[in-house]
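Assess this one:
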Amino acid sequence: MSADLVVMGAGPSGLAAAWRAARRGLSVTVLERADHVGGLSASFEVSGIRVDHGSHRLHPATPPHLLADLRGLLGDDLQRRPRNGRLRIADRYVGFPLKPAELAKRLPPGLLAGVARDAVTAPLRGADRGGTYAGTLRASLGPALYEALYAPYALKLWGLPGEEIDGDQARKRVTADSPWKIARRILRGRSDGQGKIFYYPRRGFGQIVDALADAATAAGADIRLGTACTRIEPAAGAVVLRTSPGARPGPGLGSEPGSGGGAVSPDSVPDADSPAEARLTAGRVFSTIPMPALARLVEPGPAPEVAEAAGRLRFRAMVLVYAVHEGGRWTPFDAHYLPGPETPVTRISEPANYRVSADDPGDRTVLCFEIPCAVGDEIWATGDFSGVVRETLARSGLPPVNLAEVVVRRVPHVYPVYETGYAEHLAGLDAWAGTIPDVTTFGRLGLFAHDNTHHAMAMGYDAVDSLTEKGWDGAAWRAARGRFAEHVVED
C-alpha cells in the first residue's frame, strides 16, 4: 500500500484533511496538478504586493476549533479586521455590509418606497414562485430590491437571467430573507451587526493554505506538486491511481495558476521528457476535484446517462485583472461591488486594505478586477484589459488610476452554475460517486457547491473523522453532508 490516504487536490479542504489525517498517524499523499498549493485560495505577488485570486476573507462565523487551529499556525499574522466595502446601487454608493441608516439617506425615495411597499404586501406574494432564483427573491425580498440589485447581479455573475437559475442559488447566496427585515432595519436605522469584521492574514489569504501545507508536511504528509491523476481504478481493499508527473493541462482545464483543477488531468498531454506513468495504491481516496472530472477518471465509469448529466453541470469562469496603481493607496475601501450592467466587472478589491502589513509599499497599490465569463467567450479571449479598467472606473464613478502595469489570470472553475434542472443532473452523479469503493468526494469542486474557506476546512476535518479504525463511518459522513447542505455562503 503506497498510503493509507490519498488526497486529490491541495486546496483548503484537501490540505485540512491531509493535516488532520497525518496528525492521527495515517500515511498521507496529496496529489496536486499545479506547481503550488491552494488553488483559488493561493496568493502571489504583483509588483511586489501580495494579492489573491479575487476577494477572499476568513468569515467571522468560522467555528472556534478551526479558528483556534489557524491561530496556532499563523499567530498574530491572522488579523481581525473591520469590513469596509461599498456597493453601487441606483447609481450611488452605500456602505457594504449594508448600513440601514445610510440606506435610508442615500437610496432614491422611489426605491425606498418600493422596499416599504414590498414589506406590506409580502403576505400576499406567497412563498417561492416556480422554484427559480427570480421567483425566490421576488417572493422573499420583494420586486423592488430584486430588480434593483439581484437581477442584474445574477446576469453578470452566472451569465443567466434569474428565471433560468434554480432557487437554490438564492438560498445559498442571499441571507437577507425578508423585506420586513430590510425595511425594519432601514426605518429604525439599526443593523444586526453581521458581517462587520473578518479575519485575514498579514501576507495574503494564501498564507492560510501555505501554513496548512507546512503543518501537514511536518506531520508526515507527502505533498506532490505538479502531479496529475490520469486514472482511478477501485480494486478489492485498495484504490489504484495512475499519475503523470509531467502532464500539461488540456484545453479548458486551466493552464494558469489558481485554475482550481486540483489533481485532475483527464485530458492531459504528457511532456515529451516526462517520466512514465506512476502507480499509487491507497486504502482510501479523498477527491476534491470537480465531480464531473472524477467521472472521467474512474474506471469503470458511470452509466452513459449519468455521464451525460455530468456534462451538463457548468462552472462559471472568471478573468482576474490586476491593475498596478502608482501613487499610494487608491481608496480607503477594501472592495467595491458593482452589480449593475454598466460594466462586466462585479467587484474591485484592493488587497493591501484587507490587512496591516509593513511589507506593503507606500508608493503603489494593486487593484483586482473580477470579471465573470465563460471559457472561450469574448471576455476570456481579450488580450488588453487596460481599456476595461479605465472604462469601468469612469462608468462606475470611481477615481481614475495611474496605471503602471496590468497582470491577467484566467480561472476556468470559479462558481458552480445552478441552472434550472441542475439538481437532477447532480443527484445522479452524486449517487454514482457514493458507490465508488473507498472514494469520498467533497469540497467546493467535489460537491459542486458554494462554500467559504471555513466550510471547506470543516469538510476535510469531518471526512477524516469518518475514517475510523473500524473502517468508513457512513452514518457520520451522511450527517456531515447534511450540515454542508445547510451552509449559506457570504462574500
